[in-house]
């Protein structure tokens, strides 16, 4: 292999990988180059990858340990438990509970003590227009802060809670109850050091980050409001416009993302996601009272 051919996707982050066919096994040197480019660029795009679910899983497994059996397992592919299905297709005659997944900025599985290292999303079916995904570079978000703010944030921890998602609260109560049992709130460092690159990145986002530890409520709310806006600065983003058979992989340790609802809901959006297991991070904290919606109230 002469080296990967990459094409930048934006000023802030991301690159398209050219000349790779994921239907074919990749040698160890190529896999290593992909892994290095992924941690450096944050987001990698592979166009025109007409792969099977098994090939999707095989590529993910070549990169590292594949996540199986987390709190979202209820929504996994029936024949491939490594694949989380994001779809607006009907499921058992009902609207899919993953149809509105990721409508706020987030990093996958940050509310666990082993957050996702990476995610690989394959477009099976997309609407004619829209359904875009935005990504933000959390290395740059940290680097763009003043030295004084960096020093203030580095010792701080923030609580990430699965229950904070308004989408989750609308799902079947018995499913949500089991999810909550398996995912107590977790305190994560506000500034994480990437285990592969050694670079510092901000690790807060509006979907799951609910409060700062050791700060008053007003202080916590004000600081999170500032950080959420700072991290999502358009200067810090890449906007992905999907094509069918795109495979997009991102590094959750140095990026966050949001799925936009800017498409005709009568058109299909059907995606398969695998997840790479990350290193241990964070500690469990207590959750306050939770009130589950009844199916009628949902």
In what order do the strands lie side by side in the largest sheet?
1-2-3-15-7-17-4
What is the CA-CA span between the terminal residues?
54 Å
Structural class, please? alpha+beta
CATH architecture: 4-Layer Sandwich
> Portion of residues in helices?
10-25%
Q: Assign the CATH superfamily.
A: Clavaminate synthase-like
Mean pLDDT over the residues? 91
Shape: globular
Strand content: 25-35%
- Radius of gyration (Å): 19 Å
Number of helices: 7
Any idea how many domains? 1
CATH topology: Double-stranded beta-helix
**H-E order:** EEHEHEEEEEHHEHHEEEEHEEEEE
Number of strands: 18
Low-confidence stretches: 291-298
The CATH class is Alpha Beta
Please give the largest β-sheet.
7 strands, mixed
Protein name: TauD/TfdA family dioxygenase
InterPro entries: AtsK-like, TauD-like_sf, TauD/TfdA-like
Keywords: Dioxygenase, Iron, Metal-binding, Oxidoreductase
GO cellular component, one term: cytoplasm
């Amino acid at each position: 292999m002469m080296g990967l051919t990459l094409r930048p996707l934006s000023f802030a982050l991301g690159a398209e990988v050219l000349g790779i066919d994921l239907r074919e096994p990749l040698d160890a040197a190529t896999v290593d180059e992909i892994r290095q480019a992924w941690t450096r660029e944050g987001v990698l795009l592979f166009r025109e990858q007409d792969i099977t679910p098994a090939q999707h899983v095989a590529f993910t497994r070549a990169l590292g340990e594949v996540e199986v059996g987390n709190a979202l397992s209820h929504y996994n592919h029936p024949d491939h438990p490594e694949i989380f299905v994001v779809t607006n297709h009907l499921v058992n005659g009902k609207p899919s509970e993953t149809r509105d997944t990721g409508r706020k900025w987030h990093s996958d599985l940050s509310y666990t003590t082993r957050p996702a290292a990476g995610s690989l999303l394959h477009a099976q079916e997309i609407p004619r227009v829209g359904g875009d995904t935005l990504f933000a570079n959390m290395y740059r978000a940290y680097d763009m802060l003043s030295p004084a703010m960096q020093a203030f944030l580095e010792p701080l921890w923030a609580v990430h809670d699965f229950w904070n998602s308004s989408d989750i609260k609308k799902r079947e109560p018995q499913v949500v109850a089991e999810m909550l049992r398996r995912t107590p709130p977790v305190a994560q460092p506000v500034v994480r050091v990437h285990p592969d690159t050694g670079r510092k990145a901000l690790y807060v986002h509006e979907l799951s980050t609910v409060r700062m530890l050791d700060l008053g409520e007003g202080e916590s709310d004000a600081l999170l409001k500032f950080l959420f806006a700072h991290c999502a600065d358009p200067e810090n983003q890449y906007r992905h416009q999907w094509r069918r058979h795109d495979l997009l992989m991102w590094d959750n340790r140095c990026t966050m993302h949001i799925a936009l609802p800017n498409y005709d809901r009568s058109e299909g959006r059907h995606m398969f996601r695998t997840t790479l297991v990350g290193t241990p991070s964070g500690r469990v904290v207590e959750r306050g009272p939770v009130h589950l919606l009844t199916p009628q109230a949902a």
